[in-house]
Amino acid sequence: MELKNKHILLGVSGGIAAYKSVELLRFLKKAGANVNVIMTASAQKFVGKTTFEVLSDNLVLSDLFFDTESSVKHIDLATRADAVIVAPATANIIAKLSHGIADDALSTTLLAVTCPVMVCPSMNTDMYQNIRVQRNLDILEKDGWHILDPDSGVLACKAVGAGRLPDPWFIFDRVLAMFTKKDLNGKKILVSAGPTVEAIDPVRFVSNHSSGKMGYAIAGAAEKRGGQVTLVSGPVSLESPVGVERIDVQTCEEMAEQMLANLDQADIIIKVAAVADYKPIDPKTSKIKKKDNNKDLFVSMTQNLDILKLIGEKKKKDQFLVGFAAETNDLEKNALLKIEKKNLDMIAANLVGSSDSGFKADTNKVKLFFKDGSFVDIPLMDKSKVADILIDHIINKIN
Ligand SMILES: Cc1cc2nc3c(=O)[nH]c(=O)nc-3n(C[C@H](O)[C@H](O)[C@H](O)COP(=O)(O)O)c2cc1C
Questions:
Q1: Domain end call among 131, 153, 179
Q2: Other residues' Cβ atoms within 10 Å of the Cβ of residue 77
Q3: d(CA 237, CA 255)
Q4: Residue 146: which pLDDT band, with cuts at 50, 70 and 90?
């Protein structure tokens, strides 16, 4: 529950994207936040108040003079708020907020808040690019509010361009980032994730069950904590973590090339990828045909590059190198051996084979071993939480 005990004000103004705020509200609630929704009169032409009231478990504030349980509800809400999100933010509310106008519940409450505010503009492209709207957004940004750039694409009005409200999960991700301590500020982090694939022929390959979830969770968590993250990823079906530079690769060789190309600048290297240890010696250029007289097919394999070892050899004194070990047995022995053999500072070892940890699962249970022989058990939890604890330990060791 990343937002437990946080009070969030969700301001909804009268844009076509108001329906997306319903899902944003659900993300916030699921993360444990207490959410109060404030709607403009126009917003209620798009989505009913009842929907927000039921999903937030709170009355919606929309009329300063008639709606309130307390006579100064807008001040109560403003004082209690830990963060405010205005999504969607119309050109009209942006103009009012940037000029200190207070003529409805939302604009009046926002004059009284002192916490961080994120404004998510959403409108037709010509409106968004209008010099007055841009000027108003500039004012808000200079005043210290966060402006979340709109997405580009086909808009509800059929125009193509910038102005679409980003997906609710994306806005939610940025809200989490607002609340995250920036203890990786100024640090460059290089992460590898996912499996690699090695061709047998143009349609078949050798790979493994890695889903990339653990590496992506680490990359996302490091970005939220202020790190500049490069993610070298094998083929996975995951959305890129927000704000992370992602480099897609297929084979071990391509992954090694990208990891080494980005190694020099990195302060912290976290190698989560499950690289194929072996690859076919002689991948065929045309599809291997099934032959009736030949029941068995033998594919000769040869060892791939050991990327972690290569990085360990090249690693500079001030770089921190973390490896992952997925083991089916002898977890501790294998992990400690790997630390020594590959010149690691830390290894996160997990036993694969259980449905709630390791490959594919959303949760993981790992044991962190350090160069100095110490270790820490991280019990079964969400991979996003494992990622944060792992980063806590890295920061602790670096400092
Ligand atoms: C169908 C329709 C869709 C609209 N969509 C948007 C929009 O996406 N963004 C925007 O800034 N204004 C949009 N407007 C205009 C606003 O609703 C209008 O400017 C209103 O005064 C905004 O009031 P508010 O800022 O108090 O919510 C739309 C209007 C209509 C009729």
A1: 179
A2: 22
A3: 17
A4: very high
At how many degrees (to 10) do helices 131-142 and 91-98 cross? Answer: 50
Q: Which residues line ligand 1 (CB under 6 A)?
A: 13-17, 40, 42-43, 90-93, 122-123, 127
Domain membership of residue 20 (yes or no) is yes
**From the alpha carbon of 89, which atom of ligand 1 is closest?**
11
Instruction: Say whether both 170 and 202 belong to one domain.
Output: no
Residue 223 in this model has a pLDDT that exceeds 60: yes
Whether residue 1 lies inside any domain: the answer is: no
Ligand 1 atom having least distance to the Cα of 90? 11
Please say if 157 is a catalytic residue.
yes
What CATH number has the domain bearing residue 201? 3.40.50.10300
Same domain, 152 and 206: no
Claim to verify: residue 139 and residue 52 sit in the same structural domain: yes
Ligand 1 closest atom vs CA 127: 11
- Look up the pTM and report it: 0.84
Q: How far apart are CA 380 and CA 368, in angstroms?
A: 13
Residue 359, by phi and psi: left (phi above 0), alpha (psi -120 to 50) or beta?
A: beta
Expressed in angstroms and rounded, the spacing between residue 272 Cα and the centre of ligand 1 is 46
Q: How far is the CA of 294 from the centre of ligand 1 (A)?
A: 69
- The residue range of the domain holding 352 is 188-287+296-398
